[in-house]
Specification:
Strand order of the largest sheet: 1-2-5-6-7-8-9-12
Number of strands: 12
Order of helices and strands: EHEEEHEHEHEHEHHEEEHEHH
Oligomer: single chain
Shape: globular
Number of helices: 10
Largest sheet: 8 strands, parallel, barrel
Bound molecules: fe (ii) ion
Length: 321
């Protein structure tokens, strides 16, 4: 591997921009049904997450169209309208930060372009997963599914450096999301909470804690949710995802196809009031299941999230501008 260029590390524990001074905000991950939800529940949605990779078309490096990315104007205009008066954050996986390959600077620029078009991100989150395997003939070859990371000092160094590079370019607080693992990961040099704790304590990133992903991993042979959370530095948790899933051929999956299960709500109420830096609670559902979940049920879920946010009230903090 060529030597990595040195970069100034980010300021340790640089704050995530917050929406509310006294409690976490409640928000949604944008999908095509979000405008319909917002028509009815606009006051309940205090922040909006977008996957920036869904806001541009990647035509590939060296595209014959003369540019690698195309940005759909009507979609960006619609999102710009929805985020008015709300904090916006970027939540993606296209950077595949734990991959062994270098940071794809062109994708970073495309993410930044989307942010500029929409009035700016408050923070950015990425998944603790591998999406792009080691490169062959294709410069940006995606695996088609997210793959687990091998937790150990080598991957920690690699990821730490790429987080510093990303921070140097975007100047944003970065959060890494715990993955949904569909199989146990034996013989790791580190456990996942330890790996995330290192990244946080080094000042590289905070944690986006997906509680439903924890449930998926626990049902697939991973640690029980309580054991995982007792090992995680709860100061690192700055955003939480809620979601639900279904079984597929006997495997419980992170399909975002249902409301948040009751066992996840119970864990949320037990642990989230102990997360002093929690700024945002975000609902994820897949738009293809919106009809089955039901519009009224989504509204009810948002109301429950507000009750949870109230349970996490804290001393007022200054809102960064
Ligand atoms: Fe998530």
């Amino acid at each position: 591997m060529p030597p990595l260029p040195s970069l100034t590390p980010p300021a340790p524990h640089a704050p995530t921009v917050i929406t509310r001074p006294d409690r976490p905000s409640v928000g949604l991950l944008f999908n095509p049904t979000t405008p319909e939800v917002m028509e009815e529940a606009a006051p309940l949605v205090e922040h909006l997450s977008i996957n920036p990779g869904q806001m541009f078309h990647d035509l590939g490096p060296g595209s014959r169209f003369g540019q690698r990315f195309a940005f759909p104007g009507p979609l960006l205009e619609a999102v710009a309208g929805l985020r008015q008066g709300r904090v916006l954050n970027a939540h993606g996986f296209s950077l595949s930060l734990p991959s062994v390959g270098p940071l794809d600077g062109e994708i970073v620029e495309a993410i930044a372009t989307v942010g500029n078009q929409l009035g700016g991100y408050a923070w950015i989150s990425e998944h603790l997963n591998v999406l792009t395997p080691p490169r062959g003939s294709e410069p940006h070859c995606e695996a088609g599914m997210v793959l687990p990371v091998s937790y150990g000092p080598e991957s920690l160094d690699l990821l730490s450096h790429k987080l510093q590079q990303l921070h140097a370019r975007l100047g944003l607080r970065i959060l890494m999301e715990n993955p949904a693992l569909l199989t146990p990961l034996p013989e790791m040099e580190m456990q996942e909470p330890e790996f995330l704790n290192h990244l946080y304590r080094q000042g590289d990133c905070g944690v986006l804690l997906d509680l439903h992903n924890l449930l998926v991993s626990a049902r697939s042979g991973g640690p029980a949710m309580e054991i995982y959370l007792e090992a995680l530095d709860l100061e690192a948790v700055e955003e939480v995802h809620l979601a639900g899933g279904d079984e597929l051929y006997g495997v419980y999956t992170d399909s975002h196809s249902r409301l948040t299960p009751e066992e996840v709500w119970a864990i949320a109420h037990e642990f989230l009031p102990r997360c002093p830096n929690l700024k945002a609670i975000t609902l994820e559902y897949n738009d293809t299941y919106f009809e089955r979940i039901g519009r009224a049920a989504v509204m009810q879920e948002l109301s429950r999230m507000h009750e949870l946010a109230q349970a996490c009230r804290r001393a007022p903090q200054p809102i960064a501008t």
